[in-house]
Specification:
The complex is a heterodimer of chains A (about 100) and B (about 150). In chain A, helix 1 packs antiparallel against helix 4. Chain A is built from five helices and two strands, in the order ααααββα. In chain A, a hairpin with a 2-residue loop joins strand 1 and strand 2. Chain A has about 100 residues and is mainly alpha-helical. Chain A starts with a helix and ends with a helix. A two-stranded antiparallel ribbon of chain A has the order 1-2. The mean pLDDT of chain A is about 90. Chain B has a single domain, classed as START domain (Alpha-D-Glucose-1,6-Bisphosphate, Chain A, domain 4). Chain B is built from five helices and seven strands, in the order E-H-H-E-E-E-E-H-E-E-H-H. Chain B has a seven-stranded antiparallel sheet with strand order 1-7-6-5-4-3-2. The N and C termini of chain B lie far apart (about 30 Å). The mean pLDDT of chain B is about 95. Classes of the chains: A mainly alpha (about 100), B alpha+beta (about 150). The interface of A and B includes residues 3 and 70 of A.
């Protein structure tokens, strides 16, 4: 699977987006901490983390006996730079021009 | 507090190291900032730009293992809020994998609840670095070269 396909697929699931949001709030969490914060079984959290890791949206680090999970937003930024800015920039530029014209009149 | 960023780039460790340490190349994807240093262990580095009146960032190169690992202290100077965050640490690690490199950037020794201003730029820089090394192009996303 293409790297970007893996990211879109990983983001297509609401539970996985919840996991990313949980890491956005508190980065570097253990599996147990994530399981406590979310209405998901341990198995569910593990399964979703595997998909997120495969898409490089989550990176794990060992800290002694603990395995910590970190949010890696870089693949989302790649999507932004490849897809979103291309379509939104002309629109944003048009809005800025309208604002400019309104302020001058 | 610790933040981790990871990206895969189709390039060699030598080219990647060069893109990080050569100020002319660095300015093409790092908000237009030139990062200058002699890159010896214990040396100082400075980030500046012709488009900005002040020094933007500075620190020391704690560990220099070309072309695999660079450990730096980091002080952001681009705003009063950023200055208040003090000194943190940034580690760049390059791991060759098949015809690509994995680049991991770990920003740690951040205070708890540190401003995202301090570390949020890494993903924009890494995205620009990938585009630059793989296509030779600069990003056109607004803000990506704001200090040029």
């Amino acid at each position: 699977m293409d790297a970007m396909d893996a990211v879109f697929k990983a983001l297509a699931d609401p539970s996985r987006r919840k996991l990313l949001d949980a890491l956005y709030k508190h980065d570097g969490q253990t599996l147990s901490a994530l399981e406590r914060r979310l209405p998901m079984t341990r198995f569910g959290v593990m399964k979703h983390l595997r998909v997120l890791e495969a898409a490089h949206l989550v990176i794990t680090r060992r800290n002694g006996r603990e395995k910590l999970h970190f949010l890696n937003a870089v693949p989302i930024r790649l999507i932004h730079d490849r897809w979103v800015s291309k379509y939104s920039v002309p629109f944003a530029a048009a809005l800025a021009e309208i604002k400019h014209q309104l302020e001058e009149t | 507090m610790e933040k981790v960023y990871e990206i895969y780039i189709k390039t060699t460790p030598e080219k990647l190291w060069d893109a990080l340490t050569n100020p002319d190349l660095r300015s093409k994807y790092n908000f237009g900032v030139r990062v200058e240093s002699d890159w010896t262990p214990g040396s100082r580095y400075e980030g500046k730009s012709p488009g900005a009146p002040m020094l933007l960032l500075e620190g020391e190169n704690v560990e220099v293992d070309k072309p695999r690992k660079l450990v730096q202290t980091f002080r952001a100077l681009w705003s009063d809020a950023a200055k208040k965050e003090g000194t943190s640490r940034v580690t760049w690690e390059i791991t060759p994998i098949a015809d690509s490199c994995k680049l991991t950037v770990t920003h740690d020794q951040l205070r708890d609840n540190a401003s995202a201003e301090l570390y949020g730029g890494h993903m924009m820089v890494l995205s620009g670095l990938k585009t630059f090394l793989e296509t030779g192009q600069k990003l056109t996303t607004p803000g990506s070269l704001m200090y040029t």
